[in-house]
Amino acid sequence: MEKILDNRFYDFIINNALIPTYNTGDNITPVNDLTSLVHIPKDQMEPCDLGKNSYHLFPALFTLESTVSCDEPDVKALQEIQDTTMYGRGVLVGVVDTGIDYRHPVFTHNDRTTRIISIWDQTQEGSVPPRGFTFGAEYTRELINFALISDQPLTLVPSVDTIGHGTAIASIMAGRRDDAHNFAGISPEADLVVVKLKEAKANLKEVFFVPQNALCYQESDIMLGIRYLTGVASRLNRPIVICLALGSSQGGHDGRGPLSSYLDYLVQLPRTGVVVSAGNEGNNQRHYYNRTDIAPFYNSFQLSVGRIDQEFMMEIWPYIPSSLFIEITTPTYETSQIINPTVEGCQRITYQTVNGEIWVNNILFEEETGDQLILLRFRNIPSGTWYFRVGSMTGEPFSFHCWLPSGNLISNETFFINSDPNTTITAAGDSAHPLTITAYNQQTGEILLESGRGYTRLGIVKPDIGAPGYRIPCAIPEGRYGTITGTGAAAAHTTGVAATIMEWAYSKGNYTAVTGNQVNRLIIREAARDENQTYPNNIWGYGKLDPSEMYKRLLSQ
């Protein structure tokens, strides 16, 4: 079995300069010009593997950022795009998600041939992977067309989307119009390139104390998927706009993670657009913030733990120059010892009055950022209110953020008592140059309460704009239609618009050197803004997506 699929190996993200240190001949998987994966064998996975190995080596876990429903779409909810001559012709739209139902009519031409250039299904074992990759199966347009005329298409192309999220996202971006079912994609003449992600390795879930049955994907597989998308676009010499409707609350929320950095690089290249969802953590009470300016220099906060959350983690990210200790008190008021910051510490805490255990890494210098990180991982602890006290080791003012996991990695029964809805943009929505999209209810004009809020931890303006994201009509597997809600849906909507701008710039020859960042700045510049609000702000960014104004501006050039 390939090491990238083998649960006996960790997949660490390393800088390419370190390859000679790790290379044993068959344990390196290239990701991009800056990073690679090194596959490290481990006979018995242990919590303190994170501690012995730096936090930044482990890929973060990402979750889906929209909810798909089988509800019949509302007639009033049909996406409205002004009548133009731009439909994404000549442009590729790329999606890295749960796969696609390639048999759905919205992904075919009128002659029933496919509009999909290729699919890389990372879940298929024992098949022929794409050139330059070592796992999964690639299904080309020619093979998909053969499957579509076959009586048993899944025997030729066995790639399916059992979740439905990827199919929905792809259809909003580029689905063919179907008035009978009240459906229309934004760029119905764009071609699609699709990556179906494999689920995260069990060992990565284990080290981050994530339930094994939780659906999530690892950062490194997403990065490989994006490399595949850009490779297809380069081979065909065509522009591409990539939609990422996945997010993670891990990391410093500062745009410096491996995936965020990769996307930030790509979007500044010619003919490569990137649109990212802002996440749906705005009203989940999974973020806490404190600033302490006066003595005594400590802060206490509380976490309500639900009964069904048997395993989860929590991250505390102080600002420089803070150096903080932490102590933890149970619902029965038994308090741990003080855990001071160390370079590579990993401590297991147990209590006499309650069951369960807590693993604490109070990392003085997290290697990627240079900031302090306090990582807490909980297993089998009792429900109730838990108490945390953090304080300055040097007796000076400090501030910090604290985040719980995103999406389905934890239930809504576990939350901070005095939570803060701000700074809840998920990675990679914290990247500086990719377009980060929040969601609003297009029927009322109001922001969706669950939409992630900015700014980033380092004060970068995010989200960039808001887009429709409430019960958007979409395709779902098995030839059906439904609706999708969330910032992932809003990102897909915006990706379709970005593809039409790429068509104007590149396919129509108006500005062939266009970069994704330039497309993003145009979208931001032409956003609709309420005269009663100040922009940018941490809820709407620079305003609402306004395609009609953009098209007027472009077509008048």
From TrEMBL:
Transmembrane segments: none
PANTHER family in alphabetical order: CELL WALL-ASSOCIATED PROTEASE, SUBTILISIN-RELATED
CDD domains in alphabetical order: Peptidases_S8_CspA-like (cd07478)
Recorded family membership: Belongs to the peptidase S8 family.
Keywords: Hydrolase, Protease, Serine protease
Keyword Hydrolase: yes
Name of the protein in question: S8 family peptidase
Species in which this protein is naturally found: Lacrimispora xylanolytica
InterPro entries: Pep_S8_CspA-like (IPR034045), Pept_S8A_subtilisin_clostridia (IPR017310), Peptidase_S8/S53_dom (IPR000209), Peptidase_S8/S53_dom_sf (IPR036852), Peptidase_S8/S53_subtilisin (IPR051048), Peptidase_S8_Asp-AS (IPR023827), Peptidase_S8_His-AS (IPR022398), Peptidase_S8_subtilisin-rel (IPR015500)
Pfam families in alphabetical order: Peptidase_S8
Domain Peptidase S8/S53 per the UniProt entry, residue ranges: 88-543
